User: Fold this.
Amino acid sequence: MSLPISRFPVPELKSLPEDVRARILAVQEKSGFIPNVFLVLAHRPEEFRAFFAYHDALMEKEGGLTKAEREMIVVATSGANQCQYCVVAHGAILRIRAKNPLVADQVAVNYRKADIPSRQRVMLDFAMRVALESHVLGDADLEALRRQGFTDEDAWDIAAIAAFFALSNRMANFTGMRPNDEFYLMGRVPKEK
Amino acid sequence: MSLPISRFPVPELKSLPEDVRARILAVQEKSGFIPNVFLVLAHRPEEFRAFFAYHDALMEKEGGLTKAEREMIVVATSGANQCQYCVVAHGAILRIRAKNPLVADQVAVNYRKADIPSRQRVMLDFAMRVALESHVLGDADLEALRRQGFTDEDAWDIAAIAAFFALSNRMANFTGMRPNDEFYLMGRVPKEK
Amino acid sequence: MSLPISRFPVPELKSLPEDVRARILAVQEKSGFIPNVFLVLAHRPEEFRAFFAYHDALMEKEGGLTKAEREMIVVATSGANQCQYCVVAHGAILRIRAKNPLVADQVAVNYRKADIPSRQRVMLDFAMRVALESHVLGDADLEALRRQGFTDEDAWDIAAIAAFFALSNRMANFTGMRPNDEFYLMGRVPKEK
Amino acid sequence: MSLPISRFPVPELKSLPEDVRARILAVQEKSGFIPNVFLVLAHRPEEFRAFFAYHDALMEKEGGLTKAEREMIVVATSGANQCQYCVVAHGAILRIRAKNPLVADQVAVNYRKADIPSRQRVMLDFAMRVALESHVLGDADLEALRRQGFTDEDAWDIAAIAAFFALSNRMANFTGMRPNDEFYLMGRVPKEK
Amino acid sequence: MSLPISRFPVPELKSLPEDVRARILAVQEKSGFIPNVFLVLAHRPEEFRAFFAYHDALMEKEGGLTKAEREMIVVATSGANQCQYCVVAHGAILRIRAKNPLVADQVAVNYRKADIPSRQRVMLDFAMRVALESHVLGDADLEALRRQGFTDEDAWDIAAIAAFFALSNRMANFTGMRPNDEFYLMGRVPKEK
Amino acid sequence: MSLPISRFPVPELKSLPEDVRARILAVQEKSGFIPNVFLVLAHRPEEFRAFFAYHDALMEKEGGLTKAEREMIVVATSGANQCQYCVVAHGAILRIRAKNPLVADQVAVNYRKADIPSRQRVMLDFAMRVALESHVLGDADLEALRRQGFTDEDAWDIAAIAAFFALSNRMANFTGMRPNDEFYLMGRVPKEK
Assistant:
């Protein structure tokens, strides 16, 4: 597909600083392709490093939230921000991590109607509030999380993921970041044994 | 899957009036399954008849819009209304009619970023205005359509589809209408020859 | 009055299909004039038939809501959608059906301030939610109706009327449908005996 | 009608300061009844005096706007603010001043669809911007007025009326100010000669 | 500073009616400078008189609210309306009346995060509702005030101040009223003894 | 002042990883106090590192925007997001970098009314669009920047700063991050020579 993946120049891999290139090659090795977010943001190596360091600190860490739950926060808030790249790319990761081919499309359109337990529904209520009206957040919002068994450290995780993708959605919308075609089908078809 | 498809009782096929049952059996014959909208709305046969008569008058007619374009209007406005059933079900139909496995997800999240020609982008600008702020519609909106080659009859089609799904989205959101699992994968995997 | 009643051509009665013409003549016989919605929508006979079949299924049926209550839903939600035709025309019908010359103007501007019992206020809270934010509708909304004695079938009626006029308001706003002058005064002056 | 006209105590005429009572008796003499706004605001005589001094300075003055145009601004912005008292009471005055039984209902619901010349439509565009988003007002808004022949003093009049009724609408909504029954029919029926 | 303080002509003091000039000289005597609102509104002496009569009736009166609390309502609602003049000028007065150099900036940005007791937070919740959505105000809002010990007369004060500055903010935004440079630093630096 | 600066535990400096502590001591050395954002975010050292690496990559770099302009973007978008910490802290930095004691308060309330050249006004129009509705960003927005002499790399800077503070504002609102008292007066009083 020859459609541009960014409004900005996309650097050649060989022209990139060693650490940035290594990171990109590692993800290509693992995924079989290079997600466009890596190529688009590599236009600014210093920002690239901070972006992925932040991303990994939030998305790859241990903690009270499962990895699928983290991706669910990304998909729901990115849907609210109408960010095509993040909904499509993280929708794929959510399907894989949740081993559920349906949940990403459900959460992207309207998480209130998704097949998720009330714990996750409350988690997404909170994440959406961070994404869309953080200025009204108060104790009652944290209480609602606690009633579902979330710790305050979990609350930080939820808020920080919603906040980080507030940044990410805006950069993707600004750059016109195009989702790779590969993402659309990932995690939809059960693998044969 | 045993999750309920509606907040309301879903009638048995055999208990339905003959014409309603015939319509449902015909779609089952054609699609291989019964889309849940037929079963959910059959709770009220008289409304069912009017709903599908209206639907067919708009979606199955000849005219200046292709069938894929009609479905595109449904997907974009249903995304804006956060209607899970319509995005998932009509997303499937859009993929099939457009013979394009990517366009439905793109249009559902943010049609401004979709891989569509400017004609369709302007068509969706107009449809979204009908869906979200019809009280401000004026001559300038129709002029924008004409500049893309749409006739005023095409404008009626676009407006009427957006208006009909304003109804449809609200009924689906109200009844908690669940999309059939079959829709999620339809039109995503190219058929082998 | 020679102002146009639609952006679109208005058909001559004699050029219309027999059933459409018969329907229009019947309403003229009953009301003494032809409400413009009939003439404007007759531009598309097939959609006309479905529209009025749907309308009658919702507005003329027996059930837990009085006919005045059904019109009240139309006036409140059409006011929110800034639909001049529906507020003026159904305001007239509401005055007549409720035998109350004041309630339509009250409900059109702000139903929270209208002289209506709390049952009707809760009914309109629900209808407005369907009209304006159906994606957040949940069990709590239905519970609020039940506490006022509404059955779930009544809830369907309320939702379906609000949903149908979501369609109707958009078509009226799109076509520039002009209310007949007759409507403005109907039901305002008590008939002498 | 025994419904309360305010959440607050309504003073007896005889208990009011002389100037406030005189003002109220004068309006009663002229109109044949006492509009409730006078009785409701008389609860606070000092504010009453300032309110009506401001009102008269804007609504009774000579200038580039006709008195009907001034009332039109009141009705349009009060409709946007969902203020029942102001829409009903000033709707009556607008019908009388414009000698037009239809225009008030049209402007209250959606001024863009009213039977008014483009000069008045642009005037109301400006008034609505003052009412709803004055923080974005800029030179372009004043230019649009000038192109319709409005002077900058006319612009002040339009803005000041919209601003004054921003206050008035809020006080009416807060006090639960009830429109007098008399207003609903005023100006609707042509007087016989 | 030679930047214009209004889009409109600013009258010379000597050209003003005696009472208007006297009022302006008195404030200059007291404050050491003439706040621009006096000069800008003096363009229309009759409106000037009503404006300041209203202002004084609300802001200078005795009652259940302290003068600092009255200014707090002005700053919070003017922040919501993005009115630069009122936030800067009344922020200065608030700092002085509350003898607190921080509270004005806090309240202007987000009163929910300000260092204020819950009584004042509830007062501002109510004021913001008057400012931004007075059409939904109901008994529950007054109950919330009563639970904090506010009387219904206090409620009128809060509502009337929010309503008056709804007017004031719109006039300041419309005229492009410029805050005097003096206001920015007032009340920030503790006076030496 | 003993008010809490975060909902979360604030680490002791001595308990922090060496690099985090060094960074904090350096800012204390430079500013004379430790801005609370450092202490609040140090609760999560890994996120702290990414946050400040990102911050510095955007705010300390060379480029087409002055440092004052970068702070102006922060203040305007943080005002829109009602983030008290960022408005107060970056308002201080803006005053210092712009050597202008007034501009920060102006931009925080309503940048359209600030004493800034049209270049900066257009820059802030763009930044606000990124902050508040990035999903509609298109070529026309970039064109508007170019007409003011901004390069596309400048556009990235503007967008990235607005996006980064979308994150930052949400974290500050979530944690209840309290601005240090020192910020309020910084840059307001001209230094004596």
In short: The mean pLDDT of chain D is 96.
